[in-house]
Amino acid sequence: MSLNSPTERIFDQTTELKVAIIAARYNTEIVDSLLDNTVQALKSAGLENIKIERVPGSAELPMAAALIQKNCSPDAVIVLGVVIAGDTEHHNVIASTTANALTQVSINSDTPIINGILVTNTKQEAQDRSSKVINRGEEFAHAAIEMAQLKQKWTQKKA
Ligand code: RBF
Question: 79 C-alpha vs ligand 1 centroid, how far in Å?
Fold first, then answer.
């Protein structure tokens, strides 16, 4: 995983945005740290309407994202999970099928779905990316706002 981050952005007109966050319970401690950082960054950017839902593991994130998109019409959805290699190849299956399904939901529904699933070789790597020093949560939050505003810009009715 790259340690580079996008350049910092300042957002305005964010108070009307509605963002749903869906977080897996697998590797709870690390996911919770991402969740805290994501919520904090959304609130710091001025968002008030934030819905949070939990699912068992990362594999359940696409279905929950599709369901919430259909029934709650958020401006963006952020999914959070941590997939650690461990001793099994199963993590590759979870990471790639989940990423593909999330992209499908996003494109089919015209809704930004931010893939905030950390895929790492070790627990330590995942902890390093969700710590106080580097926390990807803020990056996921900013991506959600930027894409929600991009959607608003390109779907506004022309006078
Ligand atoms: N879910 C995660 O979010 N992260 C993982 O690292 C992870 N590893 C798994 C490894 C195995 C062998 C299995 C069977 C499941 C794993 N899951 C993991 C759970 C998965 O996302 C899902 O919740 C379950 O497979 C039930 O559909």
Answer: 15
Q: What is the CA(56)–ligand 1 centre distance, in A? A: 8
Checking if the pLDDT of 7 tops 90, the result is no
Q: What is the mean pLDDT of residues 64-79?
A: 98
Query: At the topology level of CATH, where does 18-155 sit?
Result: Rossmann fold (3.40.50)
Beta bridge partners of 77: 20, 113
Residue 25 CA to residue 149 CA, distance in Å, equals: 29
Confirm whether pTM is higher than 0.85: yes
Helical H segments across 58-156, by residue range: 61-72, 90-109, 123-128, 136-155
Q: Where are the domains of the chain?
A: 18-155
